[in-house]
């Protein structure tokens, strides 16, 4: 059984999804008293990703997880052909598939489109369940098993949501994109964002004004 994570990144998150997947397969086989299948786990990210630590963790995963027989990495863009036809059984990806193949023209002109529109349109863009459903249906390769929108900040303790923490969260999410397009700007980015939210209540106010959604989608090959 071939399992792949697209956009695995590096560090502890790199193996989080595939480890959960392997455990779920194991549990399912136990429940139905079936022998677990031999599993091959492949991790993908762009060639610039730091795969050194990822490879070491993959070896640990192979040695500690019973049904994992083979592990490997597949560097390259998921916008290109990475695997042979019909070779994958389960593909997972977290916080990666929204990365575009290239910067939109607006960004190269230093405009951020989502902020140049009115409140209603911004909400539509940030909670695009309907739009995504239509795109998947129109394209036709997959059927939608389940789709949910979730604002991860609703579970976040407000007391933990300080300007410093929120800025580090944004840095972790966007540093590669910002550096690629704007160069060495991260120190300035951190100073500017912290300054913006340092006023009492301004971060909470901005969070309420700008909803943020994660879409979780489960698809099956049509
Ligand atoms: C925000 S990280 C998510 C990491 C991890 N999956 C997680 O949930 O914590 C996004 C990752 O997607 C990778 N990525 C972006 N575009 C990609 C592409 N076209 N092909 C492969 N990986 C890509 C980035 O290099 C980055 O490591």
Automatic annotation (TrEMBL):
Any one Pfam family here would be Methyltransf_7
Output the Gene Ontology terms for molecular function. Answer: S-adenosylmethionine-dependent methyltransferase activity
Which superkingdom is the protein from? Eukaryota
Q: Which organism is it from?
A: Triticum aestivum
Task: Please report the name of this protein according to its UniProt entry.
Answer: Jasmonate O-methyltransferase
Q: Which GO terms describe its biological process?
A: methylation
- Kindly list any coiled-coil regions of this protein: none
